[in-house]
Amino acid sequence: MRTQDDTKAAGQPARLGQVATPSLVLDLPTLDRNIVRMADRCRELGVGLRPHVKTPKSLPVAARLAAAGAAGFTVSTLQEAEYLAEAGYGDIFYAVPIDPHKVARAAKLVEAGVALSLLTDSLAAARATAHAARECGAVLTLWVEIDVDHYRTGIEPSHPDFEALVRFIATDPSLRFAGLMSYGGASYNCPDTQSAAALTESHRRALVETARWLEAKGIDCPGLSFGSTPAVLHAHNLTGVTEARCGVYTFQDLFQAGIGACAQTDIALTVLTTVIGANPDLNRLTIDAGGLALSKDRSTQGRSFDAGFGLVCDEEGAILQGLHVATVSQELGLVTSMDGSPLAFEQFPIGGRLRILPNHADMTAAAYEDYWVVAGGDRIVDRWARTNRW
């Protein structure tokens, strides 16, 4: 099984100061701590961990997750599934409601021997998926997502179609019923860790009680799958749940730090940028990382921990307290103090390097094809590729 990318070339830069900007930087010790933390947490809870690779999208990260005991992987695109399968990973859950037009592509992975699971949340979609599977001559495994907190997708167990949906999957010869899943996305809006734990418990109970209800109807429910990073980190109890799906914990970000899922020092991902302008009259620096390099995800906006478009670190990754990227255009970012105090411009020469902590790691990383991997500070130890697109 391939565990390393072949992107480390001879003559690779030794320090971040030699890298073109903007670039994506991944701190290896922090990444490894985050991986171990979640693996230990799931072991404490007695639940398998199926990491979501939609955040890293990188084989070397997947290898570290596998070494920490991952019970398969979760993906958000078929591109990610194909990428993992090509590297030899064979247990993959594509956790987005399946588009019937993509069934033929998914079936190729199944035919190649991959244990690929798909997702649905409606009877109409399940029927369309079964029809497409028959046309391919494939048998596909389907999870059913239940809606517990009205955050995103899923079908409520009280919905008139729910039993018919599950029964259809369990009896159609082109489908196999994998079980029930839910996504605790509303945990991102919980005001404190106690609320997140309570939300997690509501998901756990919904999954367990719905499975019991189905079993009383004669429908076996093999698996119960639950996610999100803060929901699992703050859970008191996941009894009955078979696996946890979490993704952003590998890198963490400013939003996760703001809601108490990590500390700012647990954020493994930064964007390397160069100071390209200074305006003392307006008390701001210009950097070459704008909306495309940082993303325009303002998930911290309106919160007590509002970080603008990202907090500022020095070239070695140490946080420069009180500075943020206040605004962005496509290719430019404007850095200033959060409280309006004067910047020490002599500390930020033109051509100097800074690193920006992201609001949302997934969205920021999506702009890049690879990571410059550092072992703390600015010393480069490797360059890892990622997969993008769908």
How would you describe this protein?
This protein has 390 residues and is α/β, with parallel strands linked by helices. It has 2 domains: 28-250, Alanine racemase (TIM Barrel, Alpha-Beta Barrel), CATH 3.20.20.10; 264-385, Lyase, Ornithine Decarboxylase, Chain A, domain 1 (Beta Barrel). 29% of the residues lie in helices and 24% in strands. The protein has helices at residues 28-45, 59-67, 78-86, 103-111, 123-136, 162-171, 193-216, 229-233, 254-258, 291-294, 361-365, and strands spanning 23-27, 48-49, 73-75, 91-97, 115-120, 140-145, 175-183, 223-227, 243-245, 269-279, 284-287, 311-313, 319-328, 333-337, 353-357, 370-374, 380-385. An 8-stranded parallel β-sheet has the order 2-9-8-7-6-5-4-3. A 6-stranded antiparallel beta barrel has the order 10-11-14-13-12-15. Helix 5 (123-136) packs parallel to helix 6. The relative contact order is 0.16. Residues 1-8 have low confidence and may be disordered.
